[in-house]
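Check my protein:
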Amino acid sequence: MNQLKAVILAAGEGMRCRPLTLTRSKVMLRIANKPMIEYVVRALSESGITDILMVVGYAKERIMNYFGNGKDFDVHIEYAEQKQQLGTAHAIKQAKNSVDGEFLVLNGDNLVSADTIADIIKRHTGGTSILTTSRMDTSGYALVIESDGVVKEIVEGLTLKNVRNTNTGIYVFERTILDAVKETLQADVREFGITNSIQRMIESEGAVKKLVEGQTLKNIHNINTGIYIFDQTIFDAIEETLQADVSDVSEFGITDSIQRMIDAGYEVHAYRTDHTWTDVIHSWNLLGVNAMILEGLPDSVHRLADSRVNDRVVVGRDSVIGENSYVKGPVIIGRNCDIGPNVVIAPSTSIGDNVTIEPFTYIKNSVIFDDVHIGSHSTIKNTIIGENNVIDSHFVIESRKDLTVELDRKLYHADELGTVIGDAGTIGCDVSVTAGALIGTECRIKAGTVVRKQIPSHALVI
């Protein structure tokens, strides 16, 4: 099975990850100083799969320049272009002339491990296989309905959440409740709840079936991870999907093609994984995934002068941390960085290459891309800063939990966020940003500004 060729889908833009994806594809967003697609490539290599086809499209040059032919990553990489982003079925079609027999398909914007990949390749017995994982909330995912490992239906766009009716403790009773209460008080129990009395009435004649005290009820649903093993028959199903008369559809999902195969009598198998599978939906999801990856960092510290460094901290070549600075891991710092003195870098922070952080600045749980200058006396928490930003002194970002974030006139939820700043901006001194106010690419924000709402790209804020 290790002779499988892997097809990585990497053509999409990732519009919900703007403003960061205005200048790069979603798969090239950085997590712990590596593009997220690199974690997929390395997981494949660890699995013994070294023959890779990347289907690229939007901002393809960044991907191709970074990976080349794959030699630096101990794999062989070829490329196919999806010139129009018409969905995953159309993307996989671009691989038709590059794969023989069975092949593995993965998304370039999901973090997986070698164990995750093994969960499908070791159990695959032929035909089409889908890897699923468990979620309580299926929002945004395809639900895989199966019986004894055979897929019956793939349901897209259905949100299943655990909604239960709970007792408010407000009742309207008839006098018959008093008889039930009397029976309850005569029972051999330590406490006498009114629900016990109501349950006695239910058992005799009630329409309510049962009252359940003190139990947590959860439903676990199998969702599609976007990891498949196909044989050549998938391409016929893709052709049928692409030729379907669906005038209101702008993208053609591979799940439509798989459903066609199921409806035609093909047996499609589902296998579940409990290993690493992490999806980045919005740009701020990078913060949680970055923290998860950093938890696995080894200790490796270089060129430290009179600084305090604790726990797992990786410092790149030619980087210097000034005196009286404090770094509390897990933290990764790239190459050729100049930090401090008197800087505090708190856990779950990634700092890219060629970054300057001036004195008396505090950074926590943030992702700083390459070539960023951050002025003195700044406070940055739960924030992502794109590359080539120049930020003057006394820059303060508010951070809050349970936020509603506006992005391209739509509202989304963030568990905790400061802000997300696109590439190539210039921010003056004494600027503060309200939690959740995103800043686009190439913005110029003058000194003393308070940013209270989303700033579009190329804006001048005075």
Notes: The chain has three domains: 5-156+220-281, 163-217, 295-461. DSSP finds nine helices and 37 strands in the chain.
